[in-house]
Fold each of these.
Amino acid sequence: MVRFVDAVGFCAINELERFPAFPNLALALGRREALWQAWWWKDDLHVQQRVYYTRLFAGRPGFISLGWLPAFIAANGAAADEVFLVGALPAAAKEIYRIIEERGPISSRPLKKLLPPEARRAATGLLWELERRFIITKTDITGRELATYSYVWDLAERWLPEAFVEADRLRRKAAEALISERLDALGVPREEKLVKRVLRWE
C-alpha cells in the first residue's frame, strides 16, 4: 500500500463518485471499496510517518506520500491565526486548537471533556476540518478495542516540522502548479469542480 501511495503521490481510499479518474486505493486493490481493508493501515502507517492520512479529498479519507506532503501543505494549509482571524472556522474550532496547542498530544476523550457542551457536540467535525487544513493531525491511537479506540491529536507542524519548512519554501502557487502537473500525468481532468471539491482550492 505504501508503494502505491508513493507511486501516485496522493489518493483517496475509495473511489470518489463524481471523480472516478482520481487515484484511489480501492482500484489498486481490485475492489469497489477499500476503507475496511485499510482501516488499521490508515492509522498505523500514518502514526509511523510512512504515509500521511487526510480527509482532504472531497472530505473523504485518503493518503498523501511524504514526498508530496509539502506541496499539499503549501497549497491547502494556512496558519491557524490566519484561519481564525478571517473567520474561516467557528470559535469552537479555535478552542479545540488552543487545547491541543497547550496540552497536545491529547486524545479525543479528554480533549472533548475540556470543551463546553456546544463545542463538544461539534468536536468531531471540527477536528476533521482542522485536520483537512493541515493545522492538526492524529499522532497515535489509544487502543484496538471499541471501548479504548480513540485518536491522539497534536499540531501537524509540531509533529512533522520538516514538511512545513519545505512547504514554506515552496509557496502556494508553485505547489498548486506541481499538483496540477501530477494530475495531468495521472490522466485526471482538472475541472473546476475537482479543484474546488476535491483539492479545496479557492
Amino acid sequence: MPWLALALNTPGAWVAPNFHAFEIDGTVRDATALTDNQSIAYCTHVRATFLGDPAAGGLGSLEGAESIRLEVRTFYSKIGRTVAPECRDWDGPTVDDLVTNNNPQSLVSPAGPARSRSEYGVIYTTTILRKTSA
C-alpha cells in the first residue's frame, strides 16, 4: 500500500496522499488536481498508530513497536453527487468533524452551499499490522 509510509511518517494523524479520490469504478484520481464537476464517488484518508514504543528503535522505526493500528476511512455522498470539492479541499480535522459530529454547524462545501452531515456516508475500517521475527 503506497499510503503506509506516509501514514507511518506522521503517526496518529489522518493523512491523504494526492491520489486518494476515487471514481465509482475504482479509478484513482489526484485529489489536488480535481475540478468541482469531476465524478468523484469516494474520498479516503488513512492513519497509523504505533502500538508499543517506536522511539526505542528510532524515529519512525518499527523496531520498538510490536504492531501498528491502521485505520482507513472513506466518505461519500448519499445523494449521488460528486465529492470532488470536499476531497480536494477538506483536511483530516474537517473530516473528523464529519465523522464525529463534534461541530454543530453544517459542513461548508468549498464549491457550494453548506451541506448537512446527513448527506454523507462514512466507511471506516481498522486493522492491526504485526511485526514478525525473521
